Amino acid sequence: MNVIVMGCGRVGEQLSWLLINHGHHVTVIDQEAHALARLGNKFPGQKVKGIGFDRDVLLQAGIELADGFAATSSSDNANIVGARIARIIFSVPKVVARLYDPRRAEIYGRLGLLTISSTTWGAERITELLTHSELDAAYSFGSGEVSLLRIELPAHLVGLQVKHLTIPGEIRVAAITRRSQAFIPLAGTEFQSRDVLHLIILASAMERLQGMLGLQEGG
Does 200 have pLDDT greater than 90? Predict the structure, then answer.
């Protein structure tokens, strides 16, 4: 992919290197030279000094050929303006804006802009770690609304089937690791002792899952 990253703070810097390490071509825009210097002299991508939502700067960065645009500056307003220009004016296929204010994330999400609220994600992730310590969250999606969990099968579920731990739209067994081999189960797959389950779950269904697994406090 050809990706433009607007803003070279800590998030923009890490994102740029992650994309580079995954084999993508990256152009980073920032109006401060010292911010671009964070990337170092060995950065193989392109650096463009300027305002990330300025049309001429975006053209210099090659936005007409971009496959993705990430707005990661420290300003919510700048990120939204940049994201809207990338999506609406230049028709970039994949556009993501980082926002601090979760209320804005909800508003712009309704307008069709993909946003990541670090405030919401961080708060929900901390809550999850504090209140559901028995469950190992391997990954969270969106702003923490959906998580991928890894759990060792409780003894009382041995012999039951995947369908008994499935709630449509809330909880799904995505994979099972059995004797070091992972596979995608069917609804009728029976759980076996020492199975490791990989579950996709809505954050709102976490307590319900704890009940099904027998992990409630005092249970």
Answer: yes
Domains delineated in the chain: 2-118 (3.40.50.720), 132-213 (3.30.70.1450)
User: Do residues 46 and 26 touch, judged by C-beta distance below 8 A?
Assistant: yes
Q: Say if residue 76's pLDDT is above 70.
A: yes
Q: Are 158 and 191 in contact (CB under 8 A)?
A: yes
Model pTM? 0.60
Over the stretch 95-154, which tens digit does the pLDDT of each residue have?
999 888 877 777 777 666 787 776 666 666 555 555 554 565 667 777 678 888 888 888
